[in-house]
Amino acid sequence: MTSYLRSWLTGAPVTEAKPDPSIPTFNRVSPPPEDDEGSDTATEGDDDRPPAFPSLLSAQRVQSAPRTLTDSPLMPPPALPSAQRTPGADLTARSSNASSSLSVLETTKRPAKPSRKREKVALAPGHSPLDWANLKTSGKDLRGVDTLMRIPPSVLKRHNKRDDAWSAFYGKVYNITPYLAFHPGGERELMRVAGRDGTKLFASTHAWVNADFMLDACLVGFLVPEPSS
């Protein structure tokens, strides 16, 4: 470059400078043309794109998409109107006919047993449960006896009148005469156990009631077996 400028200023002819053999030179090599089809020397793993699966020309892609069922084939056939139903028809015969519709058999139900409800009786004024509690604590003699006794069934049987009614509950004998007018079920129901053991009837009607708490002021004795002769 220096010799070129010198010749241009002085007008001397330009001579091409010869390369110095002592200075190394580098030749520029152009890259090889790109091959669209690829080469056999390409190493596996250069392309990170996953292959198509299934293959574009595979049998899986050629097959048609599976048929999707709608709700119509899954729904049961409509039931017959009530006028076309036959009571007591054979289900096996109906199921053999694929075109027939499902029908509902008419069944008869057993009539419910009439339940006997215990009805409360309207008590006279002054005969409520609170009035009975006050009468027990009033100090009035409700037993009618001076001392507790051992009462066999034969003796208990004698006290079966309206003005002299005894009854046994769970091994204890009570004078139920003063309680007749206070009984919520009425005097008639309580007189059913007058002169006998009323434990079974008492337990079947109101087992949740504490008989001893209700009639403790009327206790006259204890029920014992008949004496052996």
From TrEMBL:
| Keyword Secreted tagged | no
What GO molecular function annotation could you give as one example from this UniProt entry?
cytochrome-b5 reductase activity, acting on NAD(P)H
Compositional bias, Polar residues, is annotated for 57-71
UniProt keyword terms in alphabetical order: Heme, Iron, Metal-binding
Task: Tell me where the signal peptide lies.
Answer: none
Q: Note the PROSITE patterns from the entry.
A: CYTOCHROME_B5_1, CYTOCHROME_B5_2
Residue ranges annotated as transmembrane are none
Among PANTHER family, the record links this protein to:
CYTOCHROME B5 REDUCTASE 4 (PTHR46237:SF1), CYTOCHROME B5 REDUCTASE 4 FAMILY MEMBER (PTHR46237)
Identify its protein family.
Answer: Belongs to the cytochrome b5 family.
Q: What is this protein called?
A: Cytochrome b5 family protein
Please name the source species. Answer: Lyophyllum shimeji
